[in-house]
Amino acid sequence: MPADEFQGLDETGLQQLYAETVADLPLRAPIFLPTERMPLADRVRGVLAVRDLCRNRLESLYKPRLRALKAGIGNHNRCFIIGNGPSLNRTDLTLLKGETTFAVNGFFLKARELDWKPTFYVVEDHLVAEDRAAEIEGVTGSTRLFPAYLRYCLTERDDTVFFDHRPRTRYPHGFNFSTDADHCTYAGCTVTFTCMQLAAYMGFREIYLIGVDASYKIPDDASQGSQYGVGILDMASDDPNHFHPDYFGKGYRWHDPQVDKMIEAYEEARRTLEGTGSTIYNATLGGQLEVFERRDYASLFAGAGR
Q: Do 184 and 258 belong to one domain?
């Protein structure tokens, strides 16, 4: 948008334009919108970009791109969803070279150690998208998959697919799991839940989780606020919950993990996929997640297993 787009508008005018634009968006809850850490003019530009995408390209450009991704999977029967728990540092990621993989959020901190790129890269959390926008924009060699509402801080590129991601309709008691991402996917308190829906839509029969430790500690120095009924944490100390100390912490905001809700969402994923021919397995080294049948990670690459 031109730098002089808002010339003549004072702060009150910008606030009015922001409110009017948000009223036109399909998702208007604060958790889907820019935070006040962004300058007001940037927030206005952002929501205008979301509205433009939803009106003009979500159906005509990005849903066909998503269908093309599904068609391109071919006979790839399995995929790996890579969580970012501490166990990832004990996981031999070299084995994943040549596999279909979904990486998420701050995986770019691990990717620098590898000689391969994830097939897909997914972000759904607006705090991650805002705070790590520069690093996310630096991700190349993967197909980037983002909810349409993140267009306010993430750009449209040839390697990017924006999709229709919605809040669960069963709130507060229950979760929705979609097998038709061409229509929409649903939130489930963790980006890995979104990846499961995308993987199921693409037709993978075996969906393996790694690095999904499902355990979190809240550091003593973490300050917690709440802008929309969900805790937002900020801290200066190292991150103890992920594979890298700089993943969160030191000024990077994160939502209250709500592990109990994650487990409920995972249970819904398991129930929905029963009898469909697609199964989620947990190949994480250790961790607290017991919703899915466990598989030994190394054994998945033995002999003809590839």
A: yes
The reply to whether 118 and 42 lie within a common domain is no
Domain containing 201 equals 76-305
Question: Considering the domain boundaries, does residue 267 fall inside one?
Answer: yes
The pLDDT of 248-264, averaged and rounded, is 84
pLDDT band at 254 (very low <50, low <70, confident <90, very high): confident
Mark 15-47 as b/e (b = at least 16 C-beta within 10 Å). Answer: eebbeebbeebebeeebbbbbeebebbebbbbb
In angstroms, the CA 239 to CA 208 distance is 25
Number of domains in the chain: 2
Domain CATH number, residue 108: 3.90.1480
Q: Between the CA of residue 139 and those of 95, 154, 204, 301, what are the distances in Å? A: 21, 12, 24, 27
Pair 198, 294 in one domain:
yes
98 and 45 in a common domain: no
Task: Dump the DSSP string for 23-57.
Answer: HTSS--SGGGS--TTS-HHHHHHHHHHHHHHHHHT
What CA–CA distance (Å, rounded) separates 263 from 291?
7
Q: What is the pLDDT of residues 110-122, one digit of tens each?
A: 999 999 999 999 9
Tens of pLDDT, residue by residue over 4-13, are 688 789 999 9
In tens, the pLDDT along 196-239 reads: 999 999 999 999 999 999 987 776 666 666 665 567 777 678 77
- 193 confidence band (pLDDT: 50, 70, 90): very high
My answer on whether 170 and 214 are in the same domain is: yes
Name which of 214, 250, 219, 216 is nearest 109 in CA terms.
Answer: 250
Residue 61 lies in a domain: no
